[in-house]
Give the backbone structure.
Amino acid sequence: MTVVEERPTPSAEPPPSLGNRAWALLRNSWRQLTSMRTALVLLFLLAVAAIPGSVLPQRAVNAENVAGYFREHPKLAPFLDRLDGFDVYASPWFAAIYLLLFTSLVGCVVPRLLDHFRALRTVPPDAPRRLERLPQHAAAEQRPDDPAAMAATVAATLRRRRFRTVVRERPDGSWTVSAEKGFLKETGNLFFHFALLAVLVGVGFGHWYGWHGNRLLVQGDDLGFCNSVTQYDESSLGPRIDASNLPYFCLRLTDFDASYQTTGQPKSFDAKVDVQDEQDGPWTPARFTVNDPLRLPQANVHLLGHGYAPILRYTDRYGEQQTKIVPFLPRDQMLTSEGVAQFPDVNIDPKTNQRDEDLQVGFEGVYLPTVDPNGSATSTYPAERSPALFLTAYRGNLGVDAGLPGSVYALDRSQITNGQLKQVSGSRPQRLTPGQSWTLDDGTKLEFLGTRQFVTLAVRYDPTQPLVLGGAVVGLIGLMLSLAGHRRRIWFRLSPPERSEPAGGGSLMEAGGLPRTDYPGFAEEFEQVVAAVRDERTP
Amino acid sequence: MAELSNQLMAITVLAYLAAMVLYAAEYAFGDRSHIGRAATRPARQLVGAGAAVPPDDPEGPVEVVEAAPRRDRGVLLGLIGVGLNWLALALHIGTVVTRGIAADRMPWGNMYEFILAVTLVGSSVWLGVLTRKPGIRHLGLFVALTLVVLLGADGLIAYTAVGPLVPALNSYWYIIHVSTIILASGILLVGAVPAAMFLIKTGHDQGKRRFPYTLGAKVPPAATLERLTFRLHAFAFPLFTFGALIAGPLWAEASWGRYWGWDPKEVWAFISWVVYAAYLHARATPSVKRTTATWIALLGFATMLMNLFGVNLFFEGLHSYANAGGM
C-alpha cells in the first residue's frame, strides 16, 4: 500500500473556493484512506472485530447454542443480538471494516499496478556519475578489451543472470551497462493483493448463489428423499436463487456400516446409497464417508452423523395397527439416543370414524444400543450389542394439531403440564428388547420390531469454490515472490584507458550496485556478478 | 513404546532445562562472547570515534583484559549448553518418533502431540539458525526457557494417552494441514524470541536499566535481532497461509462441506494471519518504527498461543478433537 509521509503544504495560495475545498477534502480523505497507517488500523480492527465471534455462539455455526445462550442470559442476549453479536461475520459493522479495508487496498494497488506497468516498460536508468558512492562498488580495473566489446560482454553476462540490461555509449567515448532485476517482487505483491480481491468476490458470489440443506435419512428404499427445499429438515438458499434452481437428484440409503475400537471410539463409517440424478432415470449405487463426500454434478453430500431409528408397531383398541420408524437422536459418543414416537391417528372408532383427541398415544424415552449390565442409564458401546428401548407411555391430546411447529424428538411439554396428556405407564420406563411387546393399561399394544440405521447429511453447493481456491493459491505464490524477491540495480562503466596510453589498449571497468529493497545478500551477489564478468572471455 | 515415549519426554524436558541452566550460567558469569563483541563494534564506531568511552562502560577495553579468563569459562559453559541443547533435540525427536510408532500414525493427533511437535520444530529451527550464526548464542537462554515452559505446560495440562485417530481426522489432509501448521507455529515460536529480545535490547540501548531491560545487556545487537525476527516471520508466514488458509479450507470442504465456517479455531487462525500480515506491512513501511512493527509480531504470537491454549481449553468447536481426552 502507498506510504503517505508528511507532505509540505503549499503556502501562499489564494483562498480556495467552496468547490475546491470540497474537492480537497475528498482528495485528502481518499489519501488518508489509502494510506498505510489507515490500512494497518483497519487490519487491527478486523482482527479485533473477529474476536466476539469466537466467544459468543454464532447462528451460522450453531443455532442451538445461540438459543441456549438466550435461555442462560435472558437480559444480556437481546442486547447483544441488537449489536449482531450472534451474527458477527454477517453484521454491518464487520462488513464495514472489511469493505473499507478492501477499498483502501484497491486505492493503493491500482496506482501501484499502473506504476509497475510503467516500470516494466522503462529501461534501467543510466549509471550515476560516481559509482563509488553506491552501497556496493568495485574499483576500476584494467581490462584487455576496448570499451564497446567489454560492454557487450558485461551485458551478455548480466542478461544470462536474467537482469534487464541496457548498454549506452557516452559522448566521452565510455560505455555504460545498466541492469535491473527483481521486478517479480512487486509483481508478486500485486498478484497477492489482487488475489485477495478475487477471494472476496468469490466468497460474496458463493454466498449469493450457493445453497445448503440438512437432512436426516433413514435406511430403506421406502424412505428416500429428493432434492427440494420441502424435503430438508433445515435449508438455506442464497439470496439470488430460489427453490426451483435446485438440481434434481434423489437419494436412498441402502446400507450404513460403522466400526469401532474396543473403547467405543469410532474407527470408520461407510454410507452406501442409490442415486437417481434425472427424473425417472436409473438408480446407481454410490458410497461415501466422512472426509470423502458424495460429489454430484451440482451438489456435494457430506456425512455428518448417524444413529438408530427404532421400528415401533402400535395396535389400538379396535385392532388397527400402525408402524412408525422414528429416529432417536444420539446424545453421547456411545449413542445413547433420545426420541419420541407419536401416534395421533389411532383409536378411531370405526363406527363414527371420529378421532378422539383424548385417546392419542405417545411414547418417549431412550434407546441404548448396548445396555450396561450394571444398570447405568447410558449406553456402554455404540454398536448394537444388547439393545433395549426404555419408554414411558402417554395418552391424551398430543397437541400436534395446534399447527404450531413442535419438535419431532420430544413430546409437547405444555400438554403434559396442563393435564391434557397423561402418563399411563409406571414410574419406571418400560424396557423393551427387539421383538418384545408391551401391553398398556387399556389393552393396546406396542411392539418393538427392531431398528434401522439413519445418517444425517449436509447437502451443499457453492459455485465459486474454484475461484476462491484459485485466488488463494495465486495469492500464496504472489506472497512468496514478494517476500523472497529483491529489486536491485547494477551498473558497469567501461571507460577508454588514460589518454597517455596508446589507443586500443583495453578499458577501465568500474561497477556499482544499489539494492532497492532490504536485501542482506546483495553484497555477495554483486561480487559474484563482478567476478563472473572478470572471468568472461570475449568471443 | 508409549511408555518409552513418556519417559523420553521427561528426560527431554530435563535436558532442555540443563541446557537452559548452562546458557544462563554463561549469561550470568561470562562476559559478552567475543563474537557478540565483534558484532557490536561497528555500531559503536558509528556513534563517533570522538565519543568518550565512560570509564564504567562494561565494554571498555580495560575490563576486557581483566575479564578475559572469565570470558573463556563463560564461552565454555555456553558451548556445553549448545551441546546439551542438541542432546535435548535428539531426545525430543525420540519422544515424537516413539509416540508415532506407539500410535501407528503421524504423531500430531491431539493437543499434547501438537505442542510436542511444534516445540520440536522450534528447537530444530533454533539450532539450525545458531549453526549458521553462532553470534546469537546468548538467545539460547530465552529459547530454552520458552521450550521448557511450553513442554512443561504440555505434559501437565494436555497429556493424552496414546490412541488411534477418530474418523474425522482420517484423511491425507491430516498430514498436510497439521504438519504445515506445526512447521509454521514452530518457526513463529522461535521468531518471537528475537522479537522480544529486540524490544528489550532497544530499551537497553536507550539507557533503560529496569527489569526486563537489564536482560538486554548481553544479547546480540538490535539490528541483528530485528533482521532475524523478520526473516523467521517472512519464512513462516507463507507456510502458515498455506496450512491454515488453503490446506485447512480444502480439508474443511471435504469434511464439513464448507471451506470456511468461522469455527473458533478458524476465527483465531484468521486473527493470527491478519496480525502477522499487519506486522509484514508495518515493517515494510518506513514511517512505522521497527519497535512498533516488532510489537505487532509479538501480538501475533500471543494470538497463536490463544489459539493453542485458549481455544482448545475454553471454546467448543469442530476442532475439539485437538484436545481429545486432554482435560
Notes: Chain B touches chain A through 51 residues (CB under 8 Å). The mean pLDDT of chain B is 83. Chain B has one domain: 2-42+66-323. Residues 61-103 of chain B form the longest helix (43 residues).
